[in-house]
Structure formats: C-alpha cells, structure tokens
Amino acid sequence: MESTYKKKSQIADVWSRFKRNKMALAGLIVLVVMIILAIFADVIADFETEVIRQNIPNRLQTPCAQHWFGTDEFGRDIFARIVHGTRISLQVGVISVGIALIVGGFLGAIAGFYGGAIDNVIMRIMDVFLAVPGMLLAIAIVAALGSSMTNLMVAVGISSMPSYARILRASVLSVKDMEFVEASRAIGAKNMTIIMSHIIPNSLAPVIVQSTLGVAGAILATAALSFIGLGIQPPNPEWGAMLSSGRAFMRDHPHVVLFPGLSIMLTILVLNMIGDGLRDALDPRLK
Amino acid sequence: MDNIQVSVENLVVEYKTEHGNVQAVNGVNIQVKKGKTLGIVGETGAGKTTTALAVLRLIPNPPGIVKSGKIIVDGEDISGKSEFEMNKIRGGIVSMIFQDPMTSLNPVLTVGDQIAESIGIHQGLSRKEAMKKAEEMLEMVGIPGYRSGEYPHQFSGGMKQRVGIAIALSCNPQLLIADEPTTALDVTIQAQVLQLMKSLRDQYGTSMIMITHDLGIVAEVCDDVAIMYGGRIIEQGTLEDIFKKTKHPYTEGLFNSLPNLANRTEKLKPIRGLMPDPARLPSGCVFHPRCLYAQEICQSRVPQRTDFSDTHMVCCLAYEEGTNIEVKGGGRIV
Description:
The complex is a heterodimer.
Chain A: H1 2-20, H2 22-39, H3 41-44, H4 47-52, H5 78-114, H6 116-131, H7 134-145, H8 149-176, H9 179-186, H10 191-202, H11 205-227, H12 239-246, H13 255-282
Chain B: E1 4-17, E2 20-33, E3 37-41, H1 48-55, E4 64-73, E5 76-77, H2 83-89, E6 94-97, H3 101-104, H4 111-123, H5 127-140, H6 157-169, E7 175-179, H7 187-204, E8 207-212, H8 215-221, E9 224-229, E10 232-238, H9 239-244, H10 249-256, E11 305-307, E12 313-315
Parallel strand pairs in B: 3-8, 3-9, 6-7, 7-8
Antiparallel strand pairs in B: 1-2, 1-4, 4-5, 9-10, 10-12, 11-12
Helix pairs in contact in B: 4-5, 4-6, 5-6, 6-7
C-alpha cells in the first residue's frame, strides 16, 4: 500500500510541477486534441471516399464551409487528409525518435560510463554513421529494406541515432565522476544499476529537449523521403508528401501548402513546449 | 587475531600520471579492532582517503593501482575476490560515509529511494519492505519518516549527512568508514552528527575508521589514532599515546597548530611549509624539510618504526640508535 502510494506520489509530483508551466500545459492540450483527431480520423472523414478518392471537378477549391481547408489538386478534402495524416506523422515522429533515443542513448551511456576501448569502438561506429549525411543514410536504408512504414521509421531512427549517443555520452561523462556515483558503488550497486538509476536520470535533461526537436526533424525527414518516393506512398496522406505535391500550386492556391505546413509547424511547436515543460518537471531541484 | 575487524598490511598504492608515478600510499599498516574506532589523521594529500578506498577496493583504476599489500576484511583477504563478491562486502560488511553530503546524494532520487537501494541490494527485501525499513532508518537518524519521499535539496546540510549515515548503516555493516564526515558542516551540526555517529556505533557495536584532519574529533570519537604524512603512517598509538605521549615532530606540530583556549591571544604556531608534492617526495624522512628538529641525517636515512609499547609506534630518526636529534615531544591534555 505504502509503496504504491509512494510511486503514485512521484508521478503526481512531476505532474503538479508540469501543470504549473502554462505553456507546456497548453502544448499538451493541443497534442491531446491531435491524438484524439488521429484516433477518430475514420469517424471524421472516411478514408476511401474522402481521403484518397480523386474528384477532379472539385480541384483546388479555396477553403469554404464544405471543405474547411479547401481541396488539393485532385479535389480531395485537405482537412480530411490532414486529420488522417496526423496518424502517420505522429507515429513516424514518435517511434523513430524512440528508436534513436533508446538505441543511441543506451550506446552513448555505455560508452561514456565505461570509457576506454568500449567508448572508442562505439563512438567510432557512431562517427561512421555521422559521416554519411543523415538523409542519404535513410535513403540507403529504405532502398535496401524496401519502402514500408516500419522501414521508414527504422531508417529515420538509425540516421538520427548518433546525435543521441553523443549527447548522452557527454552528459554521462559529466555525471559519472560525481560523488553520489562513488557513494552508490560503495554500497555495492552493480554497474547496470548505477547507470540506470543514478547516471541516466541525471543526464536526461539535454536529451529530452533534443528528442522533442528530433520528433519534428523526423516528421520532416519522413516528408522528404515521401517526396522522393521512398516514404509514404501516394495516395496515402502524409503531411510532408502533401506539402511537396502542393508545391507546384503554391503560387495561385497557397492553401494547398499552407495547411499541411501549419500542421507540421504546430506539431513541432507543441512538442517543443511540452519538452521544455517536461525537462523542468522531471528535475526536482527546480521546484 | 579474532578481534581484528580489518587489517591492512603493507599497502602501496600508486597513481599513474603524465609526470610519472605518484606514490599516494607507501607501506601502510593499520588494524581496526572490533567495536573500536581508528582515527586516521593527516593533511590533505597524505593518502588517508586512498587507504580507505583501498579497503573497499574502489580506487579508480586507471589511474590508481594497488602495487602490493594485503587487506583482510572480516578474516578474508579481499584481493582475490570477484567484483560480485566485492559488491556484497561494499555496503553490507563495510560501508562508507562521504565527505560532502551536498554531492554524495543523487539529486533526482528521493532520499527514501536512496536508502532503500542499499537495503534492496543486500537484504533482498521487496521494494515495499525496503521503503519501510528506509523510513525506520530515517527515524533512527532523527529525521521524520514521512520525509522519505522528499529530495535531497529539500534537506539542510546536516540532515543530508544524516541521510548519508542512514544509507551507510542501513545494512548493519561491521565496519563504517567515515571520510571527513563533518568537514562540510558547520560546528554545531558537526557536534550533532558526531554525537549521532557515536551513539549508533555504540548501539550496534560497529567498528569505525574515522578519517579527519581535526584532532578535536579524534579526541572525541577515536580509540586508536594513526597519523599519516606523505603516504606513510608516521605515528600510531592509542588515543592516550598520541595525545599525552606525543613523539613525532609532525604530531607535535599538529597540536601546536590548534588554537590555545587557555590563552586566546596567543598566536597559532602552524607547521612551516607545505605538504610535499607526492610525485616528488623528499629523500630520507619525508617530513624533514618541514621538521623543526631536522638534522643532516634526516635527508638521507629513511626512518624505521620504533616501538615504545605494544600500541605506540613512531617513525622518526630521533628515536633510532646512532642519531643525535632532540625532540621536545611532550604531552597534551586529552
């Protein structure tokens, strides 16, 4: 009873600190709305009839009561496509950053903690990844594995992995010589326990900020891959793909690119606001 | 030998640096008797902490290496033990209190979690039970148990050090190493923390190594005293031997550096000079450049141990055959 109470109180603690940051709270509300839209996308707009079926006579209509965000070059409702695109974009953004964060972060933490030969081997491999431009690496991976959503997420994740490894390694290096690490060694804690419960929680702050920015980067990377035909395949709606296909009509019909662009921007802004709030809330010293 | 908790025999520790090897500890012998407290006294850099870390086999490697020496904890030589076995000793049989409570607690974990960590490792209790025990430990060091869910920054310095004591004592260790536990605290809190350590030590019969540079603390807490200088023990004895029958000029200098309470206007008489660079220790007696009584022979001949009684030994040429050095020595009031 006591321990469950305690566990809850810690989460409640973080939540109460998070709540106090109005910007972060606003960001969270917007994100929740977007997630709800993504979940109920089929209720809002039918995939077959509204999202992918072309309706040429209706093409490039400006926003009106029937088509809130107007229609694109094939007469499809942009609002419906954006709502369905939320599913793909959020998923790709979060999962690919998750892959990068877990794999890269873990490797970076190990490298920083053990140092010496292990550090050298891991970080030189990361350097090899860094030496290849991220986009080229992602293209290569998708081209090798075939274009599917899973491969896309893996490709984007792996290509952004080295930066997480570097960031976590750097902050682990600064944390590992602190006295409390020595203190936990002196009570007989194993290396893995020390890494997991003492070092990583203390070196997470820069990574949290990086990963919220990273989600935005991953969405953009997906968009770029979609644009060259290696990402989400048409006619599936994806914000980046919509943006790039609407590019040709930008001059006369700006709404075609405006709304997908705004969606990407809003998502990134919201994630950054949440990331900032989260970083502060997770640090009990900033109470 | 039965009543010896820990013995360190002829310990030599070297740190490898760019400027050559530094002998941080050079042939140290200490013994801690069961239930007794040994004070290790010396200036910064004398090798006190290195000696203590060697007992837990926690000397950072690289750059530190234990060149030779035998460390026997609870009747067993620890040099051949695996890391797995060492982890059972660390915190379970021998635990340590660190110098600076501000940095020795993890800022992002609650104090309860940090006490429970040690309990969880050594006693295999569930999280719930460990948390309960952690609260009991907090009560024992005089902090209300309900504060176990709070973070280190919500505690004052003295309370943090008490949390450190609670962590160290949570698994009833047989030996407690206190590395200048009160250096970072102000005098009134020092007294509280020392009092607490003394009462807990007496309650549990724990042996203790008290590392300090404060002779006042030694007088209050310790049974035996070892004075370290330049990686060597230069005088060792019971509290009475050291305080009343001071032999070594360095020990004498330490006492002279204390303010005289009877005559408050009297000037302090500090030991002249500075601790030598451990990479370039002087030849002969390491203390000779600062010694008031040093003669020519001190520069070339290394002093050997001279025993005055079963308990009292000193390393100074003045007490060896064939030298003609006059040391005032003299006693202090404990």
